């Protein structure tokens, strides 16, 4: 097993290229082959990963223009051109500096530059929004646990126009048996994760790829998560790189192969197949009421590594409960984390990797806390509700804006202008920012 101190020492030995981020060919205690030739070949026929690389850590002072969500919780963001779309479970919003309350049913949009809420985009959904993805031509994909959007039927997944909130009727995936909790899109391919069982009349358990225009199920992607710990197969989060889809959730197998709670899918292959990458990092148990404890994950720009965050209630340096952990994408065989950062017993729900930092959010009190047991152990640093980790060393960065903890951060979105943060509380960076905030980036990011 690994400890927080050991994992940080190993990470410190890894070479770093220009900039802060590092992509390494070596993983501790795991098989160490880097499939570089296959990685280079994939770049010729798979679109570039669209994550934004920041050259610096964002400011700790939020912008003053973001709207306020007056109740509930924010679960997801999408950026469509210059428009931010916000999804969650709430009923009212207000522009910054205004007293006028606007009714919005779990979904609204605003101009990124000004914070002005779009008046024409106010669709009514009969359930919570759990996932968003930018569409083409001023549209947004909306996933969640709902059966109608506006006056039209929409089972768990819809494509809406930002101009008026209406559905794009040609898109009809017909998700049944559960909710859509995560989305990722590239071109004509839209990936969906959740706890559903059918898509478009085709059996698809918790994971599917559909045509982004029609919603038709893609027969070349039929990866099956299975053998859940908690009784129901569920995908919590997905993240897409140029040739890999990272998947975490309540499952212990992918296509019958052992992949406890986390796996990679080779989406450059036709048909898609489970990548020869596996980890035992999440085989262990946390508290009994958390049979599955993985939550958010995100690829670094370029896709060379990704970071997973967890809940679980367990404590101690020998577990991955309540942690953030980095993994190398192109290692193969049995892979161990490059580093693990422990909160000491508090949940992390969301992560955003920008190259300059790994931003983590939950209701944590500390980072760098492998020996904490619901307390600050030796070396722990206070990072209430939000923090940043050095991508190479795995240690907490000095960035510490603070956040009212509440349930926790349920949404991050890194973009060229900075970092969006969505949660259930109203204090961010020592200021009033109800459930939505943005930390700006003063240095122009790399394209």
From TrEMBL:
Domain of life, per lineage: Bacteria
InterPro entries noted in UniProt: Delta_60_rpt, Quinoprotein_ADH-like_sf
Keyword Signal: yes
Organism: Streptosporangium becharense
Endpoints of the signal sequence: 1-21
Descriptive protein name: PKD domain containing protein
Pfam assignment, any one: DUF5122
SUPFAM superfamilies, sorted: Quinoprotein alcohol dehydrogenase-like (SSF50998)
Source organism phylogeny: Bacteria, Bacillati, Actinomycetota, Actinomycetes, Streptosporangiales
Gene3D superfamilies (UniProt xref): 2.80.10.50
Keywords for this protein: Signal
């Amino acid at each position: 097993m690994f400890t927080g101190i050991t994992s940080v020492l190993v990470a410190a030995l890894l070479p770093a290229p220009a900039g802060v981020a590092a992509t390494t060919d070596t993983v501790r205690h795991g098989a160490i082959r880097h499939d570089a030739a296959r990685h280079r070949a994939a770049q010729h026929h798979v679109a570039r990963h669209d994550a934004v690389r920041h050259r610096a850590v964002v400011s700790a002072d939020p912008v003053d223009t973001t709207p306020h969500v007056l109740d509930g919780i924010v679960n997801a963001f999408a950026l469509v051109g210059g428009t931010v779309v916000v999804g969650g479970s709430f009923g009212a919003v207000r522009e910054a500096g205004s007293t006028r309350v606007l009714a919005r049913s779990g979904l609204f949009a605003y101009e990124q530059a000004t914070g002005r809420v779009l008046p024409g985009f106010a669709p009514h959904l009969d359930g919570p929004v759990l996932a968003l993805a930018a569409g083409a031509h001023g549209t947004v994909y909306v996933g969640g646990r709902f059966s109608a959007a506006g006056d039209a039927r929409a089972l768990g997944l819809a494509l809406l126009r930002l101009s008026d909130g209406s559905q794009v009727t040609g898109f009809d995936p017909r998700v049944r048996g559960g909710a859509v909790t995560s989305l990722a899109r590239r071109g004509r391919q839209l990936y969906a994760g959740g706890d559903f069982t059918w898509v478009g009349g085709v059996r698809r358990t918790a994971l599917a790829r559909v045509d982004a225009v029609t919603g038709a199920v893609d027969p070349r992607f039929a990866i099956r998560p299975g053998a859940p710990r908690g009784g129901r197969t569920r995908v919590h989060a997905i993240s897409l790189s140029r040739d890999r889809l990272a998947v975490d959730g309540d499952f212990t197998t992918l296509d019958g192969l052992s992949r406890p709670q986390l796996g990679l899918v080779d989406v450059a292959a036709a048909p898609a197949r489970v990548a020869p990458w596996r980890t035992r990092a999440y085989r262990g148990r946390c508290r009994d009421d958390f049979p599955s404890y993985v939550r958010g994950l995100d690829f670094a720009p370029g896709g060379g590594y990704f970071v997973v965050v967890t809940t679980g209630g367990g404590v101690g340096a020998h577990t991955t409960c309540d942690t953030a952990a980095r993994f190398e994408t192109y290692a193969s065989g049995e892979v161990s984390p490059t580093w693990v950062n422990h909160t000491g017993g508090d949940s992390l729900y969301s992560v955003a990797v920008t190259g300059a930092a790994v931003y983590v959010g939950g209701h944590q009190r500390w980072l760098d806390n492998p020996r904490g047991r619901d307390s600050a152990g030796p070396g722990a640093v206070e990072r209430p509700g939000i923090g940043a980790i050095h991508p190479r060393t795995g240690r907490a960065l000095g960035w510490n804006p603070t956040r009212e903890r509440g349930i926790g951060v349920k949404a991050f979105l890194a973009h060229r202008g900075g970092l969006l943060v969505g949660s259930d509380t109203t204090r961010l960076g020592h200021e009033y920012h109800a459930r939505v905030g943005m930390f700006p980036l003063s240095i122009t990011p790399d394209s």
